[in-house]
Specification:
The protein has 273 residues and is mainly beta. 6% of the residues lie in helices and 41% in strands. The longest helix has 17 residues, at 2-18. Mean pLDDT is 91; it is low at 1-5 and 7-18. It comes from Chryseobacterium oleae.
Length: 273
């Protein structure tokens, strides 16, 4: 019994050390592992911001702090810099570093320095829609679409409008049309992901046009799409919501509006914050 009593005491002592906070250059550690590089922290209480500027800490949750004793993420660096007097907090020398490069990750999150480039997504143009010269507040599918990953995107739409062959328009015959994006090719309602009040790209075509002639115009604009899902999403270009002035022949229409047949037509997008 005497042997086990003596063995139990040192075993309890070792366990206490295992779960204790460890401080280097400080008798007052503020985390599981705390290094006071300048050995300038107080012996009790919470050290000041100036004192922890040279500190390194590992919190009980496994977060690492440099220049802070309260890291809120896995690596939290505080340099005490300000907007007017910034102080660099990170340097990565991997052989690819040079002026103007940005840190870019691969599919696995491994980062390396690369030249800054604009991420551009380009849509696929469909067959378009023959939009008649008549008052119609409905939208119609063009078959054109763009696939956007999660996030907020500035989408640019460029649409050529041209009358159908062998149509005639008087000088006061005029159509104004609108375009936006739908969540599905099965219906033609505006996607709720198109945000803000600038949610359409509009254009027009006005006569006069004589028999056998064609008249052209360009609709160009931008709108914001915010894909809040966790996966890439397809947005379908819809056209319509048209207003007409004059008394055009009902056989006149905008030929294959928003389709691939016209080289001027394109949908593109860039990510925004």
């Amino acid at each position: 019994m005497t042997f086990f009593k003596h063995f139990g005491a040192p075993f309890f002592f070792i366990s206490t050390i295992t779960f204790a906070q460890v401080g280097i250059n400080t008798p007052n550690p503020q985390g599981t592992f705390h290094v006071d590089g300048g050995k300038n922290n107080s012996n009790s209480g919470i050290p000041s911001a100036a004192q922890v500027n040279d500190d390194f800490i590992v919190s009980k949750t496994g977060n690492v702090g440099i220049g802070t004793i309260s890291p809120s993420v896995k690596l939290d660096i505080l340099t005490q810099g300000t907007p007017s007097v910034p102080v660099a907090g990170i340097k990565i020398t991997d052989g690819l570093q040079s002026k103007g490069k940005v840190l870019t990750s691969d599919d696995n999150g491994v980062g390396s320095w690369k030249r800054q480039s604009l991420e551009l997504v380009v849509g696929t143009m469909g067959n378009g829609y023959n939009l008649p010269f008549k008052l119609d507040f409905s939208y119609y599918q063009t078959g054109s679409n763009i696939v956007l990953p999660p996030g907020k995107w500035l989408v640019t739409v460029n649409i050529l409008s041209v009358n159908n062959p062998n149509s005639v328009l008087d000088g006061d015959d005029y159509i104004w049309f609108r375009s936006t994006f739908s969540d599905s090719q099965l219906f033609a309602g505006k996607s709720p992901d198109v945000i803000g009040t600038a949610d359409k790209v509009s254009g027009m075509l006005q006569g006069s046009v004589t028999a056998g002639a064609l008249k052209y115009n360009i609709a160009n604009g931008q709108l914001i799409v915010n894909n809040q899902s966790s996966a890439a999403k397809t947005y379908w270009l819809i056209v319509g919501n048209s207003e007409v002035v004059g008394n055009p022949n009902p056989a006149v229409y905008l030929d294959r509006l928003g389709g691939s047949n016209w080289g001027e037509n394109i949908i593109s997008a860039v990510p925004i914050q």
